[in-house]
Description:
Rossmann fold, six-stranded mixed β-sheet, globular, 32% helix, alpha/beta, 2 domains
Amino acid sequence: MTNAPAIQATNLSKNYKELTALDQVNLALEPNRIYGLLGRNGAGKTTLMSILTGQGFANQGTVKIFGHNPYEHDATLSRMCFIRESQKYPDDFRANQAFKAAALFYENWDEDLARELIEAFRLPVKRRIKKLSRGQLSAVGVIIGLASRAEITFFDEPYLGLDAVARQIFYDRLVEDFATHPRTIVLSSHLIDEVANLLEHVVVIDAGKIVIDEEAESLRGAAVTVTGNAEKVAEFIGSYPVLHRDALGSLASISIRTRLSQAERARAAELGLELSPVSLQQLVVRSAMGTEDNDTSDVNVEAMK
Length: 305
């Protein structure tokens, strides 16, 4: 047994002309855990996953997957599965042909699981992939990602176009299969609260930099919103780190990054202040928005991706 990380990125940087997609990223992901890779559109998530899977180049830094550079290292690449947001297949491929190809590539492929998922998603496997709907195309990727049982599986927005029922099927099957066949799963998503209970560890990237790299459990309840009379709110929050602030006349609502003790909660009650938890999604959104410098209360959560 070894405690070495399954994925190790050190001082990883990637530039596209004048755009810095990744900026000195350091990341270590352990084996057999479910990670959330979260952030806004253009934050660098897909670029990072592409480099980690040997499908892209970094301008600086190193990547080690099970101790090896994944680029053109077949033994390492065969242990990974990367399901992209817009997965490409040959024009004349049918869904069942995509599954047959995956079965040849992934040595841990589970045909029974693939068939169960095909039925659960009601996927027309004999239809040409280019004729599938957006949700059906996403289902093809989800099935390959789960049935591959690769030691490291990356899902880049795997369920675009899936309805709520189909997404729940994906979440349920992922958890069930992970329990019996643990592996490292990296789930990139903008539906943060929807996947929050799946995640064991959260990595948030913004403008090419890692801004959060923490256990999911430590983030739950790690922030609170204080609402009430503006002067009393200001008195209460003191020097706590501020995530976001709203004000309307004499009222204020300020989100702070801290875990309040029972004594602090009692003091808030004495001041007539209302306390409400900050969800993981709100915490990620605020962290990726520049926090205290942004006073906008209207957050476009759909832009988180």
